[in-house]
Amino acid sequence: MTTAVAQKTIHEVRLHGRGGQGAVLASKILAKAIAMSGLHVTAIPSFGFERRGAPVAAFMRYSEKPLRAVTNIYDPDYIICIDPSIPKAVDIFAGVQPGSTLIQATRHSAESLNCPEPITKVVLCDAVGIGMEVFRRPITNTIMLGAFARATGIVTMDALRAGLESANFRDAGLEQNLIAIERGYNEAIIKQRQGEEWV
Amino acid sequence: MASPALKTTHPGCAQSIVCDGNEAAAWAVALSRPDLVAVYPITPQSSLVEYVSQFIADGKIQAELMNVEGEHSVLSALHGAALAGGRTYTATCGPGLAFMFEPYWRTPGMRLPIVASLVTRDGITPQCVWGGQQDAMTMKETGWIQIYCETVQEVLDTTIMAYRIAEHHDVMLPVNICHDGNYLSYGVTQVDVPEQAAVDDYLGEKDVNWHVALDPLRPMAVDPLTGGAGGIGPSKFVAYRKSLCDGMQNALGVIEQAHQDWADIFGREFAPLVEEYRLDDADYALVTIGSMTGAAKDAVDSAREKGEKVGLIKIKTFRPFPIEAMTRALSKVRAVGVVDRSVHYGWNCGPLYQEVLSCLYRTGKTISARPFIGGLAGADLTEAHFAKAIQATATMWADETTIDSPIWLNEND
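Structure tokens for the assembled complex are given below, as produced in the milestone run.
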């Protein structure tokens, strides 16, 4: 069966996190990596007051064709959630299309995420655990970009590295972030929905 | 901080980068080689002046940077620099623009070719820090040229063109390049960055204080007292005011030429005054301004697929108002829905709607019209909103009616 997502010519990504975790920076890095992979891309952060810990979102579209709409995203086919507790605070599944993928920072199982029917693939990554080892702090944004690359194959690791190198890191060094995307990529666990099961 | 190069794609293009509209404007400033930049940060402009400051710190821009205590001083500093013959730049919006008003109002009368980005922000109160064009629209009768951009690439290209327009001897007026707060200021996408040498050729030698100067070798009274009801005052005042009006009218042709030359060198074409999209066989059309236009064009395409004969008219240059180009476009249809991102309190509509009404008179035809207001204070204008506007305009076209009460597109969001 062809899903709604498979029929889309413009793919839509929504990234959830909390203020201070670098969700917006991650979306910029990912946009650069997607552009280097030869696709058209637009990215835009949701707008709120900059407040540490408050839920934030960033939106991204990519396509083989030029993109014109400069709008937020309401029907995503990829959800990247870089914070384990955000699903308790906001409806990260709002508007999600059949055949979509969730890329979630968690050390728990796919079953524990209570994904609605349209989510047919989940990518689990213990980004907080990795972040504590790499940064000694729960920084998860670039780790989850590695998991996204692994899950989708849309961006190469080379493109992600190049995107990363263009960002200025004030608190954590480039070296650490290069390790972070590598570990996110390698340690992501991919699960497909099969009926009631995740395999 | 600055974005890395991707690949070279076009003639006259040094590199492609991925960046937001604020960074794109900063690249344009770098390529335009200003002598003095004065700044005061304000949301959603802040990252723009941070990029410019970084470029100056890195030596990418060989300009004097003045971090002053507020926007009134920002523009006053630019006045001095322009009178001394310098090329100048600043950016502001919203309450910062309001604080800048006194020198802002004087700038066109002194014929200073200053370029200032307005990263448009809605008016307070109610409190908000998000995009909307109320700030720029409030300034539309001050004598500044106002140009509104649709895309991040257009922000970069038009900001460079602004110096060519401002410094043209038949114009000599300040230019506001307006880009939508949030959607363009923070919207990230691919852009081509022109080559420095090609931009140098395009802009030519600056000559900005030939007419009025702070120059010990050419002592002159700057901004003399004129007016009143006796002596040479009245005729002098009229001469100054009339020449400013003439400069504004001259700007229309200069803006068109600046865009034509840009397209010839860099291969990118933008409609300089008014863009017509799928208009030639249209029964009715939307009229749009700024970054909302992309989603509106998508909505037009979707409606066309369902057999609706709808087109779109986008305005780029709002001051001076391109009366002829707008009238020509409007003449092609029998109904228009005009979408504004700000309000016009006097007419209970948007400012663009009010200007369109004047042009409808010039068409000599009976064309139905209705105002739409949306995207205030950061609200999103999606393809679905424009589908609604298209439907309402189609109904008006079928009924041959004009309805003056606005439809508020985000009223139920």
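The interface with chain B takes residues 27-28, 31-32, 35-36, 40-45, 47, 49, 67-72, 74, 162, 165-166, 168 of chain A (CB under 8 Å). The helical segments of chain A are 4-7, 23-36, 86-89, 127-134, 141-152, 157-165, 174-187. Further analysis is deferred to the final report.
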